[in-house]
Amino acid sequence: MSIKSYSIQSVISLIVVITLFACDANYKDKQKFSIRDDQPLAIGKQINLKYTDSGKVVSNLISKSLLDYSNYDFPYQEFPQGVEVHFWEDGKKSTVTSDYAIRYGKTGIIDLRKNVVLITSDSLVLKADQLYWHQVKQWVFTDQPYQIKFKDGSYNDGSRFDSSQDFTAFISRKNTGVQLIEPQQNQEDAK
Question: Which pTM does this prediction carry?
């Protein structure tokens, strides 16, 4: 064999190797090309997702459908037919339902819309047109009309609120309602 044939074989081998590595490096980009811009990466039907911690179920998400857009630059999961989510904390169950939901992956915010109903383990009932839950900050809020009923019979109708997810820090704006306050006894009355 001549030096010229070694050179041609070396060049061809080098081109083949470069082509193989170039294909592998761009595999994710090629996957994106196979999906139309407006299509989800995955579609799920009859979702029943259970999240466990130390062998115990701590939440259960149920939905008729899921559209996963994690292939977008701002990834999200959409539940166009609503959700039903059950949470357990210290063996006590809370439930939230809505006719539509969307979860934004980068921000950790869940947007619940249409007929949102939250029932906590201590009998608090919240109804809203829309409710946001910031998972990381453990905060719930809305700028839409809502009604909240507390265990003691107190209630609040308003147009916006911000609250910790356990409702111990609750700030309501533009509201009407009834708050039941237990009278305090004076020391003189207690004698």
Answer: 0.69
